[in-house]
């Protein structure tokens, strides 16, 4: 096994600079569009910027196939997410979550809270990718296990997003989406995201010292399951008719068979509410 430590250390400021560059462009776009929620579109692109930069800088280091897999998995995931969120948010105003968070905040606080924090998180979570670019050798069954988990997660979140879009396009939709993958988890897109990053971590962890970057996927999973993902979303969703009953019978994150617990005795009337990603 071999690891180009000097190359890795040298790549750190350049990957950070690549993420910073995407954020600068995003900030300009947000000012033009009049909404800071454009940063959601850029979220996946931040990881692509870091992965591509590390891939180019690591030429001649590490394992060529592992490097290509890391770049490919991050790029496919990031582009799909950016396109999905971009199409979904086209023509809409500011996300209420950002409006509430930034109320009475000055320019500096806005930049730090929206762009600075997301940039820092993307850089830290990208560590398995950056480290893996400079690692040689390793145990390849773990690589293919990682690819399989990544593919499962990507398919899971993509199917969940497609089911959500079909639901939102139906004018006669029921009050809550509780069919398809949404029958087994209230957040198939977040669960799929978590699987994607566990898979990417395993690709890197197959060779030393990739296993030391376990904090990165742990942060991503925590944010999705307990932090700014599920927790923040459900704070507003719980106010909608029928959603608390849905919460009682449906797993919050990991897909499980629905519970029979339900306190609702109302008829399944129709509402215009829907879950957002």
TrEMBL record:
Domain of life of the native organism: Bacteria
GO cellular component, one term: membrane
Record key words, sorted: Membrane, Transmembrane, Transmembrane helix
Transmembrane segments: 12-30, 37-57, 69-87, 107-126, 138-159, 214-233
Polar residues: bias regions: 265-277
PROSITE patterns: S5A_REDUCTASE (PS50244)
Keyword Nucleotide-binding in record: no
Entry-linked InterPro entries: UstE-like
Residue numbers spanned by region Disordered: 249-277
Name under which the protein is recorded: DUF1295 domain-containing protein
